[in-house]
Design brief:
This protein is of the alpha+beta class and 81 residues long. It contains two helices and four strands, in the order E-E-E-E-H-H. Strands 1-2-3-4 form a four-stranded antiparallel sheet, covered by helices on one side.
Length: 81
């Protein structure tokens, strides 16, 4: 019997949330589940609570791309920019 080779997951197979000036990883979602503040969360209820906590702490990034906004506005009105 052979020992299975550990699978390396490419970074693109993860969704990672960072916070703070030091860009500390706060939550990671990957194919194996959720890691919150460095701890693997196994319980579904606890994972949901942690996810909602992270989402409520997120701050939108100010956008200044007015050309994109104009294109979106025009598309919503049925025209093209």
């Amino acid at each position: 019997m052979s020992t299975p080779t550990p699978r390396t997951i490419p970074e693109t197979d993860n969704i990672t949330f960072h916070c703070g000036q030091a860009s500390q990883e706060i939550m990671r979602l990957d194919e194996d589940g959720m890691t919150y503040k460095g701890q693997r969360i196994e319980d579904g209820g606890e994972a949901h609570r942690a996810f909602l906590e992270v989402m409520s702490a997120m701050q939108p990034t100010p956008r200044t791309d007015t050309e994109s906004f104009a294109a979106i506005d025009a598309a919503m009105k049925g025209g093209e920019k």
